[in-house]
Hints:
Helix 15 (about 320-325) links the parallel strand 12 and strand 13. Helix 7 packs across helix 13 and helix 10 (about 220-235) runs parallel beside helix 16. The protein has two domains: about 5-180 and about 360-375, Rossmann fold, CATH 3.40.50.2000; about 190-345, Glycogen Phosphorylase B (Rossmann fold), CATH 3.40.50.2000. It is globular. The strands form two sheets. A seven-stranded parallel β-sheet has the order 3-2-1-4-5-6-7, with helices on both faces. It has a six-stranded parallel β-sheet with strand order 10-9-8-11-12-13, with helices on both faces. The termini are close together. The chain contains 17 helices and 13 strands. It is about 45% helix and about 15% strand. By secondary structure, it is α/β, with parallel strands linked by helices. It binds uridine-diphosphate-N-acetylglucosamine (UD1). Uridine-diphosphate-N-acetylglucosamine (UD1) binds near residues 43, 138, 214 and 247.
Amino acid sequence: xxxxxxxxxxxxxxxxxxxxxxxxxxxxxxxxxxxxxxxxxxxxxxxxxxxxxxxxxxxxxxxxxxxxxxxxxxxxxxxxxxxxxxxxxxxxxxxxxxxxxxxxxxxxxxxxxxxxxxxxxxxxxxxxxxxxxxxxxxxxxxxxxxxxxxxxxxxxxxxxxxxxxxxxxxxxxxxxxxxxxxxxxxxxxxxxxxxxxxxxxxxxxxxxxxxxxxxxxxxxxxxxxxxxxxxxxxxxxxxxxxxxxxxxxxxxxxxxxxxxxxxxxxxxxxxxxxxxxxxxxxxxxxxxxxxxxxxxxxxxxxxxxxxxxxxxxxxxxxxxxxxxxxxxxxxxxxxxxxxxxxxxxxxxxxxxxxxxxxxxxxxxxxxxxxxxxxx
Length: 375
Ligand code: UD1
């Protein structure tokens, strides 16, 4: 039996918190291991960060790196620089980290993995192997590079295993374990559905849609964004659409002077809100008639919930959500989006199944593998 393990678990942006929560639950306080929880501060707005820590009952981080916003280079570099400092300081104090655990595909994921790998600290990547094959997406570069320097690869769907094998990763480093994000969803769904948010918004279950948009390809070009908003406003006359607006999207809407498109068309019910916490958002998505999104995580959550998901992207790194689940890629083609919205409304839309291993036990499987050499 080796010494006790000491893991550094790193989270930085909104979708990371749902993924680290079940891992923290499995590993924190385990007799065989100790967890140092690091928040990079990539997302710093209370609505994108603190609310999530509270809703997910995550303890406060041991280290907060406060990297904030910036260009991709700045943000990734700040994470590297500040996380390296933490790793070195811990080693000096005789509390060297035995393994760094990173999740997802955000800039914090890559920055932390790089800092660790350069100090020869082994890296485990949770949600490894996903590929959109579109290297114009910052997340795709983050995924490819993080996997290249990780030696434990925890994968959520079979396509990820095939991608990693194709890239030459040895089979013994690859573990198909299921989806940690769905662990969180299954655990918190009963609590979420008790939230009064539908009543507050005057909505009935299955009688509204939920919209989220934040990807540069959808919100950074005024023509694309205004066409998407037009379709949403128009179809909201048939089905109210709840739209919690990411700060990046809100700033684009203001910059392109599209605020008038958002509010105030007669008969339209596009309900723009501030970003929501995890529980309120899950209350809304789990009772929606359909979900319209460009988020990777939400594609998976809608598949797990069995709710139609119109994915506003040309490709996906999560093919199982299209092949087995409830998602359809509509690109940023406003016409196709409109057609698909009506397909759902007229009950002509496909149904899906929940993928194998998305059963709420992924974090348990990961913890067993991480702790194997210490128990
Ligand atoms: C990041 C991730 C993306 C993930 C998304 C979820 C990368 C490359 N992208 O995108 O994969 O789907 O998080 O939200 O890591 N901002 C605030 N407050 C904050 C954070 C950001 O106002 O707390 C604004 C800033 O103007 C910032 C912009 O949002 O410049 C973008 O933030 P950033 O962290 O760079 O990327 P996201 O678009 O949030």
